[in-house]
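ok trying again, last paste got cut off:
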Amino acid sequence: MKRFFSYIVGNAEDFSLIHRISNAVLILSVLFGVQATVGNMMLDLPDLSIYGSIFMGFVL
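nice, full thing came through this time. structure:
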């Protein structure tokens, strides 16, 4: 698991702590964007909120 986490976020030898934290925050933001998109679709919210969630996921 530690190796997978190091692969996704970055290892300590190549990246600073701030860079690794930034990577982790961006990954979590993308996951929250996907969750928001699915939630918006399930709640049958307006298309603007669904497209906004999708756009947020792509931007991040």
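cool. Residues 40 and 49 are 7 Å apart (CA to CA). The chain has a mean pLDDT of 85.
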